[in-house]
């Protein structure tokens, strides 16, 4: 795994996640579900320009939220989830989730996934980007590339992929691995027609599940 990460780091962009506040990371991650980053970013900017705090978001109508986040798609489902999340943050955490991020990782993950619309990946993104915790969120790109590289089985759930990946990634590099595997999936290891000839880890990859 170390050699794969080193090769990917030399070839791909190791971008910086733009948000550090846990509320904003939550909003961005919920909006990014089932859409591309460009659409999620448009919705994020529109929403948090008008409703920049958990209090303001919790007090807004669903109709208003839906209108603001429409570019992200699934705006009815996402608006309900975001409003419920904002209400809980405001009522139970006095508008500040940082206290959750100071808890042990498993406890914090469990508490975050109890929020509406927050699954393991979203919770881990909050722990990683807002909390600075050494976790490895698994999205569709991370899951696909990990399975093709042989680090997880084709039938594994994202949670199972995470459980297999984290122990083999060098400590302190799980966030880096998350970003690099996403970029590998976006750039070379696409769901359809992966670009083997230009992939920086082609000779190390068993190409499991690829025709």
TrEMBL record:
It is an enzyme of class 3 (hydrolase). Keywords: 4Fe-4S, DNA damage, DNA repair, Glycosidase, Hydrolase, Iron, Iron-sulfur, Metal-binding. Residues 31-187 form the HhH-GPD domain. Transmembrane segments: none annotated. It catalyses: Hydrolyzes mismatched double-stranded DNA and polynucleotides, releasing free thymine. The keyword tRNA-binding does not apply. GO terms for molecular function: 4 iron, 4 sulfur cluster binding; G/T mismatch-specific thymine-DNA glycosylase activity; metal ion binding. Signal peptide: none annotated. Its EC number is 3.2.2.29. Pfam families: EndIII_4Fe-2S, HhH-GPD. Its cofactor is [4Fe-4S] cluster. GO terms for biological process: base-excision repair, AP site formation. Belongs to the Nth/MutY family. This is thymine-DNA glycosylase. It comes from candidate division MSBL1 archaeon SCGC-AAA261C02.
């Amino acid at each position: 795994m170390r050699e794969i990460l080193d090769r990917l780091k030399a070839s791909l962009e190791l971008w910086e996640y733009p948000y550090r506040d846990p509320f904003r990371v939550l909003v961005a991650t919920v909006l990014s579900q089932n859409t591309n980053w460009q659409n999620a970013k448009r919705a994020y900017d529109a929403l948090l320009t008008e409703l920049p705090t958990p209090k303001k978001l919790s007090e807004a109508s669903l109709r208003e939220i839906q209108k603001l986040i429409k570019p992200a798609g699934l705006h009815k489902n996402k608006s309900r989830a975001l409003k419920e999340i904002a209400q809980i943050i405001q009522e139970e955490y006095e508008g500040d989730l940082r206290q959750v991020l100071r808890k042990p990782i498993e406890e914090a993950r469990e508490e975050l996934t109890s929020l509406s619309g927050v699954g393991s990946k979203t919770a881990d993104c909050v722990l990683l980007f807002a909390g600075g915790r050494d976790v490895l969120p698994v999205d569709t790109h991370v899951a696909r590339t990990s399975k093709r590289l042989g680090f997880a089985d084709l039938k594994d759930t994202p949670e199972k992929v995470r459980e297999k990946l984290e122990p083999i990634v060098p400590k302190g590099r799980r966030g880096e691995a998350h970003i690099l595997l996403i970029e590998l999936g976006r750039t070379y290891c696409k769901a359809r027609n992966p670009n083997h000839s230009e992939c920086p880890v082609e000779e190390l990859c068993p190409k499991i599940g690829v025709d």
